[in-house]
Amino acid sequence: MSALLEVRHATRRFAGLIALNDVSLTLAPGEILGLIGPNGAGKTTLINLISGTLAASEGEVLFQGEPVNRLPAFRRARLGIGRTFQIMRPFPGLSVLDNVAVGALFGRGASKVPLTQAREQARVWLEFVGLGNTISGRTDELSGAGRRRLELAKALAMQPKLLLCDELMAGLNLVEIDQIIDLLRQVRERGISLLVIEHVIKAIISLSDRLLVLHHGEKIADGTPASVLSDPIVVQAYLGKKRT
Ligand SMILES: Nc1ncnc2c1ncn2[C@@H]1O[C@H](COP(=O)(O)OP(=O)(O)OP(=O)(O)O)[C@@H](O)[C@H]1O
């Protein structure tokens, strides 16, 4: 089966710093790929290159076999590349419902979605993530875990084929982490492929079909969780210091 996403030899420089160096990957339809590595390894930069938030200095991103390098982020979102952000910025003046409706207005095939329909879709996704009873509330009334779920609902309302998740579980307790894992599994069951950045190693192992490890901007491993976690290079670069 051909890849849903392919990154070919992606490099990103910031002035003198090489944040990402010649990284390639593929992601198959329906797959969950975990992206791990120490702080500053280049994980968010890689997601930014895929979503179009940042341009690659070199290399190519293909989605459904088509190059998307030249497309701005909103065009990539309309093709079906959705994402969550590590630093969440809900729209403070809007209700929880309308924060998610914004996702529906700007997502895949979204140019003609009327507001009433966007709100209806938002309601469905808020129910899905377990925030159905908060829809008329304000986002600053949500708990930390609630804000993560809101971030997930906003991204899902864009009807992505590929969802890029940037540390959705950061700062959550073990019960909340298990709930997010369960939600992400349900997302995959709905036919959405996932690329997930996560520092919580136990969570990413149990969720991912495959793991890709970045270190100093370079890919140092890519394979099944078992093979990657027993790789001496990965143990030395990351797990030896970081395992939780
Ligand atoms: N806009 C930017 N300008 C300059 N340097 C940047 C920029 N964005 C990222 N960097 C640098 O690129 C490197 C990779 O950062 P990135 O955020 O991709 O790492 P990360 O693996 O996501 O880290 P973390 O786990 O801490 O979120 C870091 O050294 C970072 O300081």
From TrEMBL:
CDD domains: ABC_Mj1267_LivG_branched. It comes from the Bacteria. The keyword DNA repair does not apply. GO terms for molecular function: ATP binding. PROSITE patterns: ABC_TRANSPORTER_2 (PS50893). The keyword Transport applies. Residues 5-241 form the ABC transporter domain. Pfam families: ABC_tran, BCA_ABC_TP_C. Keywords: ATP-binding, Cell membrane, Membrane, Nucleotide-binding, Transport. This is ABC transporter ATP-binding protein. It comes from Paraherbaspirillum soli.
